[in-house]
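FORM 7B - TANDEM STRUCTURE REPORT

SECTION 1: FIRST PROTEIN
SEQUENCE AND TOKENS:
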Amino acid sequence: AGERVAMTFCEVEQVVGSLPRSARVYRPWWANDHTHVQARAWLGAGFETAEVDLEKRRVVFVRRRSGRSGGTG
């Protein structure tokens, strides 16, 4: 398993600034989708989201394995 980094939304905001309302309301905002600018940021840093809990306002990032295919797209 890769390195796991669990963060509250508040901790994420300390790193990147304010999150939009959609990050707190819509799970798809956290999708590992290269068409979303926010996802390109964590994917580009070598991480992907693994768990998102909107009620507890927490996200878990996992370091991506090198050589992994980019999914179905």
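SECTION 2: SECOND PROTEIN
SEQUENCE AND TOKENS:
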Amino acid sequence: MIEKKKLIEFFRFGIVGCIAIAIQYAVYLLLIDHMNETIANTIGYIVSFCCNFLLTTYFTFKVKPNKKRASGFAFSHLMNWGIQTLLLNFFLWVGME
């Protein structure tokens, strides 16, 4: 049986993920008319990343941020940003806007 604490963390994780997606997309939409799509997406990703890290540490897992947690979080998100950027540019290249 799943522990109650782990189940609560799972739901908080989902909430934080939805918030991070909304932040990234909102920033992207605000910037898209003023700059290149990749740059707008990257700025949105950075803003979202910062919010996501703070919410994940304080809200989801109820721990304090430190350098070790930040570096692990940054590494996993660096991979995610790279894949996301490749896909964004691919879909723009094929004409999906």
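SECTION 3: OBSERVATIONS ON SECOND PROTEIN
The radius of gyration is 15 Å.
The helical segments are 4-31, 37-60, 67-93.

SECTION 4: SIGNATURE
Preparer initials: ____
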